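Weekend entry, working from home. Most of the wet-lab plans are on hold until the incubator is repaired, so I used the time to fold the two sequences that have been sitting in the queue since the last round of cloning. Logging both here for the record. First:
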Amino acid sequence: MKKLFGLVCCLTASTAFAQADVKQPQLIKKSTIHASITVGYGGIENPVLDADDVTSPILPSFAYYGDNWYFDDFSVGYSLYETENFYVDLLGRFNDDGFFFELDGVDKLYATGVVRSSSGRPTLPTASPINLTPIERDLSYMAGLSSAVNVYDNIWLSAAYVHDVTNVHNGYEILLNGYQVFELFSGTAGIEAGINYKNEELIDYYYRVSPSESKTRLLSYNLESATNYYLKVSYEYPISDSFSLDFKLKHTWLDSNLANSHMINKNGYFSGFTGITYHF
């Protein structure tokens, strides 16, 4: 259940602040509950070294958009100002970095099997601590402001600032993206590109290895803030009033400094899901 919870959060995180795809009147109706479940295959690549990828055969979704407030899976928001082509919202959403640790059970591993030397050379031998601390990182919930404007022909540009309100790391994120929905082969397609800036406090909490977490003395590595980039494509083809064929695929490019840190083993990762969706 925890893996499914994380899968839903991670797959919806990129558009939690940019509601252009769900506020479009042809896609969602206000003041009604929208629930669906997709049966197929999907998941998330885990960029943490030696951590397992997360996969699932089902993907549920639950959303409600009222006149002023909304929730979309695990994101919540309140509309401060809204016109047909512009809005400003209060927004709450999970930070996705924490799921990389929660979903794989990294807390059961020690850094000797999870981290690597940033130079590619073996780590320097040293005496092992008597009591090693398991690698554990908590989930954080972020809240702040989001805004979007329709610049041309359903092309939306969005921006958001969200800060940790759970006192986990007290960091913040700045998110920028562009999104467009359009008709394609009797279905609805979407393309989204975005930038996600994570400040040093957030990156340091999740990806720095403390001396008590490692059996070997790691070479010094300076973790800084990180700017990740992503591209997402989606397609929904209606089969009937209740069923549709759905496809979502997202690739995230990690900041080069973060990708070369002790705890990461790749430059980016994929997430997505494809299958048949039943709309309740």
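Second, folded right after the first finished:
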Amino acid sequence: MKRTGAIALTALAPISWGSTYAVASELLPPDRPLFTGVMRALPAGLLLTALARKLPTGRWWWKAAVLGGLNIGAFFPLLFLSAYRLPGGVAAVLGAAGPLFVIGLAALLLGERARPRTVLVAIAGALGVSMVVLTSEARLDLVGIAAGVVSSVSMGAGTVMTKRWGRPEGAGPLAMAGWQLTAGGLMIIPLAALVEGAPPALDGKACLGYGYMMLINTGLAYWLWVRGIGQLTATSVTLLGVLSPLTAAVIGWAALGQALSSVQVLGMGVALGATITGQVVAGSTRPFVSAKEIDRNDSMDLMGESVRR
């Protein structure tokens, strides 16, 4: 039951990320993806770090920078480049292939056994997503494909290394998420200034959109994601990522008036089935971090004189 709860809470992260396209297209300034990346990551990272009341020490300064670079600093720009160079469907499928990279890296670095059925489940998830998002007009672009693949590898490597390194004494998922978001956001600032120039003027809608992105879509979501990495296997966590493009498709249908064909509905069923099956399969692999360590670190997240979980 405890594992089921951890899966459900972790799944809220990719579900939240599935709302990114709708919020960006309806509320945010156009053609400013890097500025949006900074606004998502840096304020959320500073807020989480302040709430955690914990800064890195010793080697965790460079470890936090590496994890922030993999999960945010490199991932966001590469993801945006892929989205600009490719149709959304192709980019989403490349992202859905991320679990395959994580399965391989987890086997190599964490000792998580790469079972054939787990690989098949990951392939089924990517197939289901492709049925939902790919169209006959989809075109291929080598630069976009390369950016999409590397972004998936970057996020996958960040997930595995977060699992491998664990957390330092006295730091819980709140601090770890805050450090990574802060480091990643700082890395994007020079690139955003070089490519996009000065920040745009923000109206009420943009402030509302960025507020949601910062607090819910990034701050809360990445805390849940890092927390899930500590409680579940890396494979189990990454298989939940399929929920992001599926959520985007549902929001597009429900809120933006986009039609869903029978093939897309079938694809959703395939992807959801693969996600659920993947949790059962991955559940037989022992997590890298012990339950005792998880409980100890989680209890430190929101403990303090005025803030307690």
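Plan for Monday: verify the second prediction. Residues 287-309 have pLDDT under 50 and may be disordered.
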